[in-house]
User: What shape does this take?
Amino acid sequence: MGQRMFVAVVPPERVREDLADFLEARPGQRWISPEQWHITLAFLADVPEHRTDELIERLGVKAAKRQPFSATLTGAGAFPHPARAQVLWLGVECPNGGDSLARLAASSRAAAAKVGAPPDGKRFTAHLSLARLRPPIEATKWLRVLDSYRSPSWMVESVDLVASYLGEGPAGRPRYETLATIPLRQNESADA
Assistant: This one.
């Protein structure tokens, strides 16, 4: 059995701090820790350990074809639906990047499949999970509260390959270890 991993965009610290301040003023949920916040592009349940270096290389080739783009956390949602929410999340808007996150997710998933680590088959929904709810709740009130939030914008300039160790983090949560930070295509005119 290989290792659980995911490819993700991690918002910068200033964005995570802004969101943490917003949530701190809204008790009543067991919010996911800001250090664990990320936007999953591809979830890989079983990466063969001997293929990790090749996966990093393939992700690098794919990422080098993508331009950095602007992103903002905004718009609330719930999985599977608000009436029996198991996850509360914020959406991601990419005003001048359009479908950049979806394209980045597709290329990350293709890289993983090439090394024998097929991603889960779930349809990509750009989101950042905020709370995992056990038992599920009726979340309409929380969605109205979260919908009022809009993060500072930031430039997505890299993706991370992260190993996930279930139950090894605080309070039985997963522990994440970043294995590689992979840059998107750098602007050639920066050197001119």
Summary: Residues 100-114 form the longest helix (15 residues). The helical segments are 13-24, 52-63, 100-114, 140-147. The two ends are 48 Å apart (CA to CA).
